[in-house]
Amino acid sequence: EHPYMGKWSLPGTFVRKEERFEEAVQRSLKAKTNMQDIYLEQLYSWGDPNRDPRTRIISTSYMGLVDSEKFHIKSGGSTQDANWFTVTLNSLKDNHGYKKEEEIEILLESKTETVKNKVKVVKELVDGNQIIYTQILESELAFDHAKMLIYAIERLKNKVEYTTIAFNLMPEK
After folding, report:
1. Eight-state DSSP code of residue 8
2. Rounded-to-integer distance, Cα 37 and Cα 159, Å
3. 3-state secondary structure of 17
4. What is the dihedral angle through the alpha carbons of 121, 85, 20, 15, rounded to the nearest 10 degrees?
5. 64 and 41 in contact (C-beta within 8 Å)?
6. Lower CB density within 10 Å: C or N end of the chain?
7. Full strand arrangement of the beta sheet holding 129-139
């Protein structure tokens, strides 16, 4: 659909007046990928004023972990295609210090194509709090979905590190 017809995007939808966010997410997954009953958790809310050229759109993203071997996705509804992609991150430029800037190439690869993206991530310490800014430098994905992928991968890394630490602290029986 306009304005990114033919580009890959994460599945999404508009929330109906009578729906909770979680219901809209499950409805969208079912309609656009044929996946259902997936455990999801809220990831982040996106509200940059110019993230959608049509109008001001505020989005709430969700993240779920599934075994791609167990789900045979297929497109439906207004979706032209649905596919699994392997994600590879390559750090292109990195500087450390008080203000860390990193350029990251995000490659999404399926059996038939590669979708290339490049983002800049700036991490800065302000009044004792870490502030993270993400800027899309190049993207073959629709909207700001490259930012969403980077954020989800970072959240997943943090969860794995937290889980590993928690397991290391548990006493042996």
Report:
1. B
2. 22
3. coil
4. 80
5. yes
6. C
7. 86-95, 99-109, 114-126, 129-139
Q: Can you give the pTM of this predicted structure?
A: 0.85
The dihedrals phi and psi of 131, each to the nearest 5 degrees, come to -110, 135
Whether the per-residue pLDDT at 124 is higher than 90: the answer is: no
List 154's β-bridge partners, or say none. Answer: none
Residue type, 3: P
Question: In b/e form, how buried is each residue of 48-67, taking b as 16+ CB within 10 angstroms?
Answer: eeebbeeeebebbbbbeeee
Q: If pLDDT is split at 50, 70 and 90, which confidence band does 166 have?
A: low
- Cα-only R_g, the chain: 18
Contact 83, 32 (CB under 8 A): no
Separation CA 154–CA 61 (nearest Å): 14
Q: Is the pLDDT of residue 165 over 90?
A: no
For the chain, what's the residue count? 173
Question: pLDDT tens across 46-79, in order?
Answer: 999 999 999 999 999 999 988 888 888 888 777 7
- Residue 85 burial (CB count, 10 A): 16
